[in-house]
Amino acid sequence: MATTTAAVTLTSDLLSDNMSVTASTTCMKAGTTADGLDQMEYGYVDIVTGDEFDLIGATPTASKASKLYLKNHSTDETYFISIVQNAQAIGKLYGGDWMFIPADFHDAAGDIMITANGGTNKICYALFHEGITLVAS
Amino acid sequence: MATTAIISIASDIAPGFGGISESMTLTQAGNILDIDSTTGFQIRKLSAASAVDLITMANELVEPKDSVAAKIFIRNIGYKGVTDKSVGVTIGVNAEPIGLLYGGDWMMMPLTCIDADDITATPATDDTVVLEYVMFYEEA
Q1: How many contacts does A have with B, using Cβ atoms within 8 A?
Q2: Which residues of A touch B94 (CB under 8 A)?
Q3: I need a labelling partner for A125 at 20 to 30 A (CA). Which of A68, A73, A80, B65 fits?
Q4: What domains can you pick out in chain A, each with its CATH number?
Q5: Residue B114 placed within a domain
Q6: Which residues of B107-134 are buried (b: 16+ CB within 10 A; e: fewer)?
Q7: Cβ-based burial of B44 (10 A; exposed 0-12, middle 13-18, buried ≥19)
């Protein structure tokens, strides 16, 4: 079984006592406890301003257990990317920010779309999934 | 100290993949000032396969600033120490499903904090499941 684990350590001093949370998960295929995600796409791209781009070019099988990691490697803290799914704004990743989400790509409109702001943003992403419909040549 | 989040991803799917280890300090939009507000760490027990608001933006006691650098962490911790990897909870934003958090899974994502963009949770079954979550945001 292919094994992919994702761990996070989250700390904050915004409360009266320091908060520290750690979590780790093994990324499994949808609906199973015995079979891990076994395919992945990993990339590093420059995103120019002005247009909205589909981050994932081919659509992973819908309603599965895909996990998407995305980091804005821009070093200018004023640069950011806007993230949209199916016309719904999700949020912004400023230079240095990352996100990690389950992404079920529930239909063709469920792609993750990004738009660069401030200047050309440098983006690293990794999609762990269990099947993609490749675009025919 | 500030608010920081460190992610580590290891995988043997692709030969030669060296893994991912990245850290971020949660800052306010467009500068290096620390993020300044949080909901605090919370849990929510769900026992029905129907959508509920984890966070209703318009009801936050400290009004979040819209469309800046907010983040949310959510984790499915199962129930009474038992996590089921085969069923999960769909997390959504303003009724748009983002993805399914199976037992033990966690997520961290940016938010708009616009009033309409509530964070919803919809369990796949009526079995009891608990989510823990914390939102970090800028005060309006």
Answers
A1: 198
A2: 88
A3: B65
A4: 5-133 (2.60.120.10)
A5: yes
A6: bbbbbbbbeebbbbbbbbeeeebbbbbb
A7: middle
